[in-house]
Task: inverse folding
């Protein structure tokens, strides 16, 4: 499918969804699904229509200029219009290309932030605390909610490790580039000789996993019923009301016999089974998250770094894009937008280069 055909297809789909939703032909979960697709397509289609409109206007202007009946004054107006369109087209083309880039499914998710002191002892712990506050202020500047989950403090007011949940619009999309080793160069408060020390802290930003929805297939269960019995073999019930459920994929076994009703015992057993499976899934997600964090932040050694905060020189340097800002106080106060915008632009440029 050509670039032009792909744009036409998206515009047609947007119109189909508009007609579908306006006509009251869908309801319930389908309405929610189509409404989301329509909302996601709307800004993209707006960009496409602006691009296509400029393309059509350019053809119209060129046709006018080629028309022998067009007088000199009209040709001059047409030339000026053509110049304006040609000037705007590259930007419109890039806007469409960026809008068509594959979306990271996690970009719209909330995020879990983890900050840990790395190499450098107490100074690293103090820097970790500074970074955690920096992200808290950045979240506030963005209008996001920052909820502290845990903090392990060091002896001098620093932070060994801290975590937070950040919720809001597009949190992970803007926070994901913060993962890695952050290095600081400054004179510690405890340094009597005024020597500059270098230490580090690691940052991990992870997309918040959706709450696990445990769906149990009937084919995955073996359900046995038997007669309940009390202590010492005393009969509790003369009917087969006790239930034992075996979850075949995991081997989990749940048994319930408190109720006289087999139906109630089965319902209780399934509830317990779901809870156990949910906990297993949570542990699996936690293990994956730990592995992801290790991959993202490395060992926490000073030599591995994505950004350096040099306090004596008042500069912050992001080594991935070779961007240095001489505004360390503002950055530590949560002004990260210049870095974030530049990192997003660099990532988009890389993706465009890979597509070409």
Result:
């Amino acid at each position: 499918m050509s670039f032009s055909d792909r744009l036409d297809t998206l515009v047609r789909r947007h119109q189909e969804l508009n007609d579908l939703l306006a006509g009251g032909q869908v309801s319930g979960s389908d309405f929610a699904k189509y409404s989301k697709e329509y909302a996601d397509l709307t800004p993209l289609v707006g960009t496409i229509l602006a691009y296509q409109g400029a393309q059509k206007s350019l053809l119209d202007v060129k046709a006018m200029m080629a028309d022998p009946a067009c007088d000199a004054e009209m040709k001059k107006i047409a030339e000026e219009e053509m110049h304006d369109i040609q000037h705007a087209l590259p930007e419109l083309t890039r806007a469409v290309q960026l809008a068509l880039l594959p979306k990271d499914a996690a970009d719209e998710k909330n995020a879990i932030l983890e900050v840990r002191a790395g190499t450098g002892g107490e100074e690293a712990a103090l820097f970790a605390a500074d970074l955690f506050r920096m992200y808290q202020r950045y979240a506030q500047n963005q209008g996001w909610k920052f909820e502290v989950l845990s903090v392990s403090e060091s002896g001098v007011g620093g932070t060994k490790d801290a975590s937070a949940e950040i919720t809001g619009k597009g949190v992970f999309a803007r926070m994901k580039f913060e993962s890695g080793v952050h290095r600081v160069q400054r004179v510690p408060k405890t340094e009597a000789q005024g020597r500059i020390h270098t230490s580090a802290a690691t940052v991990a930003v992870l997309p918040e996993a959706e709450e696990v929805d445990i769906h149990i297939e009937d084919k995955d269960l073996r359900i046995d019923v038997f007669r309940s019995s009390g202590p010492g073999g005393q009969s509790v019930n003369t009917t087969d009301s006790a239930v034992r459920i075996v979850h075949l994929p995991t081997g989990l076994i749940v048994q319930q016999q408190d109720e006289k009703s087999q139906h109630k015992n089965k319902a209780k057993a399934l509830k317990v089974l779901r809870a156990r499976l949910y906990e297993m899934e949570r542990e699996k997600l936690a293990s994956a998250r730990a592995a992801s964090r290790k991959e993202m932040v490395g060992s926490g050694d000073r030599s591995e770094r994505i950004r350096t905060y040099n306090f004596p020189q008042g500069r912050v340097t992001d080594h991935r894009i070779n961007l240095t800002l001489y505004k360390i106080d503002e950055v530590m106060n949560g002004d990260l937008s210049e870095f974030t915008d530049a990192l997003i632009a660099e990532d988009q440029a890389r993706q465009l280069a890979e597509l070409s």
Summary: The first helix runs from residue 3 to 22. Helices lie at 3-22, 28-66, 72-100, 121-142, 171-175, 262-297, 328-332, 337-355. Residues 243 and 326 are 69 Å apart (CA to CA). The chain is about 50% helix and 20% strand.
